[in-house]
Design a protein that fits this description.
Length: 336
């Protein structure tokens, strides 16, 4: 081969070598770029400091929204226990082959009727009933049944309960304690959430618990103003039992089935609550009733037989409630 002919072929060979080098460069850098991109995405997803210093990827956005709404309860035992679980595992998905049973749980005066109306307005499939499944035999006695099998038998007798359907039942009128207006409500007359949970485990229904949260003193004052009892001390004791009972239940029930609805900020939960229940629409929370700063109305005459004016009675009642709450309130942190 001549030098000329060899030289003539050099540009072609050099070009081919350059192309090969360019291709090798991409073969080296492309995997590196992909690795860097994946690390950046991983860091972004895990860099959110949502609550209590924990870093969680937003895999459950509806639960994340709820946790953010509940940041004012950051120190409560329930939120400490449930935050990570909700952001990791989420709420229990609804089983559309079973009825959805929504049980409102809260002190007298914590917003049962308000919440019932809010859900009823925007859920066309909700039955507007006060279920008679509890079988109260008189105004002071507890349940006439104590097992899930007895509750199931009572439930199946109701013409509004339809097994194996996607119907929705709202049990929103049974406060804790429950009873008719004007009578002393036995503290034993509280729905037992664990019996309902057992019925879900048996495949009869899907149960969701909505705990109504309102400061203890405001709930007591609301009940007194509406004449549920005519004694401040008795109403305080009834609400004390109920608050302790509900707090124990809240801490023991699975986080995936429970929702705390604060009375004062209920409107902020209009969408989040419906997502928890997997119902379409937006709960319509109307104007809230006044809290303990409002007058007692006609109730003051019976509550304060030695007071000369409604204002004097109101001050006496509020002082008694505040003293009681200062010595007990920390036990029920989720109410505030």
């Amino acid at each position: 081969m001549s030098l000329v002919s060899w030289a003539d072929r050099q540009p072609a060979n050099n070009k081919s070598l350059s192309e090969k080098m360019q291709g090798n460069k991409w073969n080296i850098w492309l995997p590196i770029a992909l690795i860097i991109g994946c690390l950046a995405i991983f860091h972004f997803l895990h860099s959110g400091n949502y609550l209590n210093g924990s870093s969680k990827a937003p895999s459950h956005r509806k639960e994340q929204q709820y946790v953010e709404l509940m940041q004012h309860k950051q120190g409560t035992q329930w939120l400490k226990r449930c935050t990570d679980e909700l952001l990791t595992d989420g709420w229990q998905p609804r089983n559309l082959s079973r009825p959805l049973y929504i049980l409102l749980l809260g002190l007298e005066g914590s917003g049962h009727h308000m919440t019932h109306q809010a859900l009823d307005d925007y859920t066309n499939s909700t039955q507007r009933y006060t279920p008679e499944v509890y079988n109260w035999d008189n105004e002071t006695a507890p349940y006439t049944f104590t097992t899930a099998s007895e509750l199931k038998a009572s439930l199946l007798k109701q013409d509004w309960f339809h097994p194996n359907t996607r119907s929705v039942v709202l049990d929103g009128q049974n406060s804790c304690p429950s009873g008719s207006n004007g009578v002393i409500r036995s503290p034993y007359r509280c729905p037992d959430p664990f019996l309902w949970l057992e019925l879900e485990n048996q495949g009869l229904l899907d149960i969701r618990f909505v705990f109504l949260s309102r400061p203890f003193g405001d709930s007591v004052f609301s009940a007194l103003r509406r004449k549920f009892t005519q004694s401040v001390d008795m109403q305080l004791r009834l609400e004390e039992f109920s608050a302790s009972y509900l707090t124990s239940a809240l801490h023991a029930l699975p986080c995936s089935h429970t929702y705390i609805l604060p009375y004062a900020t209920a409107k902020d939960h209009s969408r989040s609550l419906m997502k928890f229940l997997e119902l379409k629409g937006r709960a319509n929370f109307r104007e809230l009733s006044k809290t303990s700063g409002s007058p007692l109305g006609e109730a003051w005459v019976d509550l304060c037989p030695f007071a000369d004016t409604e204002q004097e009675c109101t001050e006496q009642v509020l002082e008694k409630i505040n003293n009681f709450e200062r010595s007990h309130g920390l036990q029920w942190d989720w109410l505030n």
